[in-house]
Predict the structure.
Amino acid sequence: MLSRAASSLFWMARYLERAESQARLINVSLTMALIDVPEDRTEQLSVPLLVSGIHEVFFEYYEDITPQNLIDFLVLDSRHPASIFGIFQAARDNALQVRGNLSSDVWESINQAWFEMKDLQRRGVRESSASSVFDWVRERSHSFRGAAYGTLLRNDAFHFLRLGTFIERADNTARVLDIRHAMATKASEEQTTQAFFEWTAVLHSLAAFEAYQTLYGNNLEPMNVAELLILKPDVPRSLHGCLREIATLLEQVTSGDARRARRLASSLYANIRYGDRDYIAECGLHNYLVDFLERIQDIAGQIQQDYMGWQP
Amino acid sequence: MQIKKPASGIYDELFGEDDRFRPHCRMLEQWLKHSSEELITDKRREADVLFQRLGITFNVYGEEQGADRLIPFDLIPRVISAADWQKLQAGLRQRVQALNRFLYDIYHDYDIVKAGVISAEQVFANPQYQPGMQNLKLPRNLYSHIAGIDLIRHNDGDFYVLEDNLRCPSGVSYMLENRRMMMRLFPELFSQLSVAPVDHYPNLLGETLSAATLKPDPTVVVLTPGRFNSAYFEHAFLARQMGVELVEGADLFVSGNRVFMKTTVGPQQVDVIYRRIDDDFLDPLAGNPDSMLGVPGLYAAYRTGNVVLANAMGTGVADDKSIYPYVPDMIRFYLNEEPILNNVPTWQCRKPEDLAYVLDHLDELVVKEAQGAGGYGMLIGPKASKKELETFRALLRNRPGNYIAQPTLSLSTCPTFVEEGVAPRHLDLRPFVLSGKKIQMVPGGLTRVALREGSLVVNSSQGGGTKDTWVLEGESC
């Protein structure tokens, strides 16, 4: 397929995944800000800004982090591309580029989301109604995924789209885990009741709370959380689960001489597949995740180079 | 619903002379009379929502990019009887055949010029004439594979060709989507009627494009200027329907006089390009050097015969308004037949005696730029203010060769939903004619309607809308 089309599909899926992650993350942060002691509220609210790396951009526009400021900035603001509005816009722009490769169900799902988003921006979002907006983002994401799974031909277009989803998801899981895990560990060390909520916040941010309970029961153990979100292959947002998909998808993509992205992905996949919690503990979770983030970005860059950005 | 009657002296597509619908449209009359206003309002809203969701929008040049305007769609179809279509089809076939013969001739043997039918200056000094096309052998001698012929119906009930579009005629996606929309909104109408289908247009187009080269199993692509182009939706739509790649200039490159597209598995050779980019922008090395839309080296590859462009380069010379008056003569010259379709009488302002007549009768005539398109830069005499008339008088005196003039034809009307209810509005018709191994077309075409009362300008950029076009297979509906 056309290189530019592959790139647009890849990015379209990345953006849609990002919108969903962002919605979960803000929702959890707003809830945590309500639970937390007043002096720690700012820290809770700044998590989504840190994950997206736009902490500084925020303070160009606002003086302090309040729930309403955060909602305005991260949901509706069209002055920067990292708001859910900006993310949906980028997703639709990419979809528009590859309409010919999308089924009408997928296109209509994205196009519809965009019109509803514009409508939402006109009406504004208050703190009291924010949760329903995050629900809406998640539903939109599910609708896109359902349409993609249910109607797209399993060809390279589909594979590149799925690659975008899992690269973004792996990247997001590693970032959220890194920041939230540190906060929860701190709360645990201070022996506060807050610790319980912090650990559930990690899990809720990555839609893994129910999965944790199924696999480990009610007892929230820091290493169990890390193990679940890194090593368990059957957790949809775990690093292992994402890497398994990425490695498999790269095997399925029709390739000419391109091998590098495959090699990088297989190597990282093997690393996680045969890794264990002792190894993670030995490295230190933070170091482990920083290394992972670098490598997943290398893979993303190599996919672009191998299939999308080549020059004659 | 109340339906406003058409003005007298104007042909109406649905109303006959006794204030009733024409015999072949009686069932439509019943349906319209028995449809409540609420139902129609609901259906109109549903159509808007569906078009918006499908993304069938267009951009207007000069407006904010990505403004995503909907072309107004009218729910009342325009109906063409089987007999009328038979005649139209024969006439279109004949006309397009002659135009392709003309294009071949002016790039090879110049017979029509030698015979004195058209002056050499008219052809060779035309800015659309491409000297580089001379003696280039094209498969099947075809130049305009896809033609859109604009027709109107005059008050004598006859169709007249208003202009030929032989470069990149657009609008066919609206023809297809309008039909889909009508079938979705009013399935009960279609179950009772025999309306000729149009849905197979993309198949015919694919067949035509594959036949544009002699190579077996050719790789065909659609070349678009990109998503900010006003017709991007259509480019994407047709590529998808035909199952071929939609490419932009930057997706293609030329190597060894062959054209390749950049794919995820490396270069893939392209054989036929259905290009929706004007001649001048196709190749920055041959045309406009600032073009970011084109492909460097494409023209050389084309001249070598390694790739086919549909439509060919240099077809613009045949759809120019200064050549238009000669089309009936072309039909006689090349085919030895009498033209089936009428041409509108045309004064060519470059001729002193024609110019004198035009200046004397300016308030009765329509004046158009010989190379204009999109309804810009034209004067409708009877509707113009004194000041506009004076402006055009000066323009005509300064550069008479740029203009042609025609009598103000009374475009036919059709009942249309407007704010005050159902009222007559003027419309035209653009059938699409495909030339490949044979000449093919789907019954009907795109009907454009001027939504402002009394307006004769149907272009979507100027507030025009569209209607579904029904060609009947049987006697009546």
